[in-house]
Amino acid sequence: MTYQSHYFTEVRNAQANAYAPYSNFKVGAYLRTKDGKTYYGANVENAAYPMSICAERSSLVAAIADGYRPGDFESITVTVDADEPSSPCGSCRQVMKELCDDDMPVYMTNHHGDMIASTVNELLPLGFSGKDLN
Ligand code: THU
């Protein structure tokens, strides 16, 4: 499924739940499964800064905890309040590599409604995966 305008509404709603008192940089994620379910993510910060959890990973972890498995995901949309849509951090790219199809769309948006479309593989080319362990 290609990007649709309601993805933006959904991801902005998810962003509203971000807990980001230290960075004040609120991030939202809207994860869709291939069978039509939705998981929301938001960044959750901690006074011990490195423990902060990103929006992308929080949505994926929620879906896996609910029983979804690698390959079950259709797309993820991310949003930030910045002049340019920002792209997922390296840790989130690695987790997407583990759990999502290489060609799964990653839609990056900002508060203006700008959108940049990419894929897991484009964001982490030549990424390390379970296949490398064989
Ligand atoms: N953050 C995300 O939620 N996703 C990313 O891909 C980049 C960074 C969060 C982590 C932290 O709470 C805040 O943004 C500033 O880095």
Brief write-up:
The chain is of the alpha+beta class and 134 residues long. Helices cover 27% and strands 22% of the residues.
What does this structure look like?
The protein has helices at residues 5-15, 55-65, 90-99, 120-123, and strands at residues 28-33, 38-42, 73-80, 105-110, 115-119. It has 134 residues and is α+β, with helices and mostly antiparallel strands. It has a single domain, classed as Cytidine Deaminase, domain 2 (3-Layer(aba) Sandwich). A five-stranded mixed beta sheet has the order 2-1-3-4-5. The longest helix is centred in the first third of the chain and has 11 residues, at 5-15. It is globular, with a radius of gyration of 14 Å. It starts with a helix and ends in an 11-residue tail after the last helix. It binds tetrahydrodeoxyuridine. Tetrahydrodeoxyuridine binds at residues 20, 23, 25, 27, 43, 45, 52, 54-56, 88-89, 92. Tetrahydrodeoxyuridine binds next to helix 2.
